[in-house]
Design goal:
Blueprint (H helix, E strand, L loop, with lengths): L2 H12 L9 H5 L8 E9 L26 E8 L5 E7 L6 H15 L6 E5 L17 H27 L2 E11 L3 E3 L21 E9 L4 E8 L14 H13 L4 E6 L5 E3 L5 H20 L3 E3 L3 E11 L7 H9 L5 H15 L7 E11 L2 E6 L2 E2 L2 H10 L4 E3 L8 E2 L2 H6 L1 H4 L15 H16 L14
Parallel strand pairs: 3-4, 8-9, 14-16, 15-17
Antiparallel strand pairs: 1-2, 1-5, 2-3, 5-7, 5-11, 6-10, 7-8, 12-13, 13-14
């Protein structure tokens, strides 16, 4: 555990952030419940209907060549006893950028009166889905137009399934639980090409498999939402696929006919699955993850009272360094050793400068906290490393759900230790996220914002159960 992180938490405690009474909004949630939960689900097949560039890996040199598994967008709508609504949305893409997220949210607000705090959109981070970025992957204008058309259709499909899920609301019971699965490997602290020679893998890791069971009043399963913190990058070929999360969902839907299985990606920015690189490996880890979920569903789970509170905010993370200069961008574009994806980004930044526009000096980072019954659900934007989940569970308890890749994401979100160490997640591009190398106080800003939102929705710290090391 980082000393600076511990000091920040102790400082927050000493300032009395959690010493005030539970806010009035949260007290309302403690009133007698009028009725139970309602839930609805809907899905859409988002497999591209033609060959197109794929997202996730910068090394690919051509568009897709076939399909291994279909990929999907899925929505789970919830309504509590007082009519408050929220929607989980899962999309099998590598990432969703802010430029895609914001139009979707605007349409959801207009069509269904849903605000940012009521919607979570999570990317599975498959590295074998369709590209959703027109800058990084290809310079071919015809191929870029395919990507633009795909994005437009994806936006329509997400809006449509949200409406269908809300229109399908029916009385249900909700349960939560946590399983365990151990196929993730920390790729920072283990050499990937030497994994087969190692008898022991170094951490840190978060092996939790969070599960929400949605059960009809008849006792039949309606939906299962589950997560895991691990890159969906087992497959590296040119075929469209949802990677191991797709195989996990397929396995659960085979085990429980009629159920909708929905995967949410965790804080797996520095976690990969091993073994890897074959369809058989992806299928193995999908079945392994499904078995973990099956075990949780077969055991007693925590029933969630029909009370829902939601919160959302965007914080502006600052930079320690100036944005790249014109000379630095020209150097990237003209240097053969830089990957094509980074060159494309540098070219886009050069075009901005040539138009007289400035490069961003801060980065807007989305933070979201829900309370479902007594269950804390925390979602973070970007490719958050596993340390965020570990640290937040020290604060809110090991049963808390922590998801990364939520709402919008593009690059890695490390910790001060990782940024100082450098390496892939610490400096994935020479100038960090969207041209900004983040300040070392970014992690503490994110944690503080989570604490603030948690207080708003009435979530208490779990320090009586779980002590903070060094505290």
């Amino acid at each position: 555990m980082q000393k600076g992180y511990i000091k920040n938490i102790l400082l927050l405690l000493s300032t009395g952030l959690f010493s005030n009474p539970v806010p009035a909004a949260a007290q309302l949630n403690q009133a007698p419940l009028l009725s139970g939960w309602k839930a609805g689900v809907a899905i859409a097949n988002i497999t591209p209907g033609e060959s197109m560039w794929m997202g996730g890996f910068g090394f690919r040199k051509k568009p897709s060549e076939g399909v291994t598994t279909d990929i999907w967008a899925k929505a789970l709508a919830l309504e509590d006893a007082k009519g408050r609504r929220a929607v989980f949305i899962s999309v099998e893409t590598s990432n969703l950028e802010k430029e895609i997220y914001e139009p979707i949210l605007a349409r959801l607000k207009e069509a269904y009166l849903l605000t940012n705090e009521q919607v979570i959109i999570n990317s599975s981070h498959t590295h074998s889905g369709a590209a959703t970025n027109t800058i990084y992957y290809t310079k071919d204008e015809k191929e870029r137009e395919k990507i633009r058309k795909y994005i437009s259709k994806l936006e329509d499909q997400v809006v449509e399934i949200t409406g269908k899920a809300l229109g399908a609301l029916q009385p249900v019971k909700l349960y939560s639980g946590n399983g365990v699965s151990r196929f993730q490997v920390n790729r920072r602290n283990n050499v990937q090409y030497k994994l087969r020679l190692q008898q022991k893998f170094n951490g840190p890791n978060d092996y939790a498999v969070p599960v929400i069971k949605v059960e009809k009043l008849s006792g039949e399963l309606l939906a299962v939402l589950f997560g895991y913190a691990c890159h969906a990058s087992i497959l590296r070929d040119y075929k469209i696929s949802g990677d191991y999360p797709s195989f996990a969902q397929m396995e659960l839907e085979k085990l429980y006919p009629g159920v909708t299985a929905i995967f949410f990606q965790g804080a797996g920015g520095n976690q990969i699955g091993y073994p890897r690189n074959t369809v058989e490996a992806a299928r193995q880890w999908g079945k392994t993850l499904a078995a973990s979920v099956e075990r949780v569903l077969s055991e007693p789970m925590n029933e969630l009272t029909a009370s829902l509170s939601t919160s959302f905010s965007v914080i502006n993370l600052e930079s320690d360094l100036a944005a790249p200069s014109l000379e630095e961008l020209v150097h990237i574009v003209s240097t053969a050793s830089y990957p094509e994806s980074l060159k494309n980004k540098a070219k886009a930044d050069l075009e901005k400068l040539n138009r007289g526009e400035s490069l961003i000096a801060t980065y807007p980072y989305p933070v979201q906290v829900w309370k479902i019954g007594n269950l804390p659900v925390i979602t973070l934007g970007e490719e958050d490393v596993v340390e965020y989940a570990i640290n937040l569970k020290l604060i809110f308890g090991q049963d808390a759900f922590v998801f990364g890749y939520s709402n919008y994401s593009l690059e890695y979100m490390g910790t001060p230790l990782i940024w100082n160490e450098g390496g892939y997640e610490g400096n994935s591009a020479p100038f960090g996220i969207e041209g900004v190398r983040l300040s070392l106080n970014s992690e503490s800003m994110i944690i503080q914002e989570v604490l603030k939102l948690a207080k708003q929705v009435g979530i208490e710290m779990a320090t009586k159960k779980y002590s903070i090391p060094g505290g």
